[in-house]
Design a protein that fits this description.
Length: 76
């Protein structure tokens, strides 16, 4: 069974985005799956996470937008 990590958050400094970025890389290294739903208000942070999203495998989902429907579906 492959572990699945779900993170639903605003991508802002007070949420520890450096830890989220690290976790994305670590989950990838360990063969886990990750769903990240979040949006950054800072354009630089948004671009950083877009770049990170392009590096991870297709098994991971990184949606850099806020989507209420996806957030509820991810929790089920």
């Amino acid at each position: 069974m492959v572990p699945l990590i779900i993170c639903i958050t605003r991508l802002v400094a007070q949420k520890g985005i450096h830890l989220i970025a690290h976790a994305i890389k670590r989950v990838e290294e360990l063969g886990g799956q990750l769903i990240l739903l979040g949006k950054a208000s800072d354009g630089r942070v948004q671009r950083d996470f877009e770049g990170l999203a392009n590096l991870v495998l297709a098994a991971n989902v990184i949606a850099l937008a806020w989507n209420v429907i996806l957030s509820f579906k991810a929790r089920k």
